Amino acid sequence: MSQPVVTSHQISMTEWLAAIGQAEESNAFREEDNRKAKRLEILFQIMGVPYERPEKLSARDLSDLAPNFKSILDERGQELCAIRLVPKKPELPKLRQRGLTIQDCYENWFLKQQIDPDDYDAFICPHSETLLWSATFVVNERGVYGEIVRGLHSQLTHGYTENQLYQFAWDFDEWRWSPEVDTEAAQQVSRMLELLKTEDESVQAKLGQELNAEFAHGYLKGYFESTVWPDNKVYIIDYNRLLPKYLPEFVELSVAEEAADVVRGAVACPGHASGRVHIMLEPETAEFTPGDILVCDMTDVRYLPFMKDAGAIITDRGSILSHAAIVSRELKKPCIIGTRVATSVLHDGDEVEVDAEKGIVRILRKKY
Question: Peptide bond preceding 87: is omega within 30 degrees of 0, i.e. cis?
Answer without folding.
Answer: no
